[in-house]
Amino acid sequence: MKSKVEKFSQLLSAKAQAGQPANLYLGFRSLFLQIVNEFMFSSIPDHLKSLATPEFDDPLNIATDNAVNWTHWLIRNFPNASALVNKVPRKLLKNITGAWEGLTQVREILEQLVAHEKSPNTPKNNDAMARRFLDAHLDPRSSSTIPHPDEVVVAETEVTMWGGITDMSNILPYATFEVAQNPTLQETLLEELKVSWPDCHGPIPSYEVLSKLPYLNAICNESMRLTHGVVYGPPRQVGSKGAQVDGYFVPPKTKSIVIALSYYVHMDPTLFPEPEKFRPERWFQKDHSNSIMIFSKGRRACPAVQFKVTPYNTTAKDFEWNQYFSIQYNGRHLHAMLEERKL
Questions:
Q1: 343 residues of the chain, pLDDT tens digit each
Q2: Is 302 annotated as a binding residue?
Q3: How far apart are CA 310 and CA 296, in angstroms?
Q4: Coil, strand, or helix at residue 342?
Q5: Global pTM value
Q6: Between 1.10.630.10, 3.40.50.11270, 3.90.1300.10, 1.10.10.10, what CATH number should domain 2-230+261-340 receive?
Q7: Phi-psi category of 342—alpha, beta or left, where left has phi over 0 and alpha has psi -120 to 50?
């Protein structure tokens, strides 16, 4: 993972040295795609690799960005719609509506990656997730001696990919924008980092080191709170014995549906005074970790922190969002002018 972050930083440095704005929204997404894809596949063909150029315009990056729209809302609320759409020939579907084009492109690219994984010319990594699926029937403990169909492997890699990029691709652009808007906050974070990372061109500190930096973690927690992750999880139908929910009894056999919404927790003023404001310092005053519903555990750090970041043609309005399976920003991608810091 460190090597990917270092590659990302090199691409940002190229933009900084050229005096050109960097598309940090696509940049962060490209970084996470490269990390998750190398977890899933033994190798990736050069033309499909992420972090390939400073423009971060690799095919899967663009396709995943275009794929998140109202179609996810439709599939979530009308599950049978997905099965129906899958039966429509892709060329015909493209002529009917362009809304499915991004998702179709994602699946076509993943099909190429699975085919590449199966090729006898591809060096094998037995720890790669797709490799394990393809070889599962060879395990003597397996209940089946029949290989998984390709469409099953593609579906599993797609779910894993979305899980690896969706929330982080929202959190880090937002965190970067908020920090960039506040020069005092930038300098405070920089001073904290100097202690553990005195040379920004040297090795990136370990997770164990970064996880102990209070201001960095406060910024991460506040950014996670205000991006919400999956705003509402899968609905849960009440069982045959009923259920107790926050002191209320929900009777059985009523077809009642219970859904927990992270937004209501994250924006609860009794937990977070002035919840709409980005205030990392609130995490020093009280431990709110049990009130963050986006991740059960873990810390996230921003690889762009070694640069002085100035938003370019980006405003707070660009971070207004719609909710599909996660949030999707409605405005322009976060672009920024970068200046390398001398840590």
A1: 888 988 999 999 999 999 999 999 999 999 999 999 999 999 999 999 999 999 999 999 999 999 988 887 787 778 787 778 878 888 888 878 888 899 999 999 999 999 999 999 999 999 999 999 999 887 777 777 888 899 999 999 999 999 999 999 999 999 999 999 998 998 899 899 888 888 777 788 888 888 899 999 999 999 999 998 877 766 677 888 888 888 888 887 666 677 778 888 899 999 999 999 999 999 988 766 656 655 433 334 455 556 888 999 999 999 999 888 788 899 999 999 998 876 5
A2: yes
A3: 32
A4: coil
A5: 0.85
A6: 1.10.630.10
A7: beta
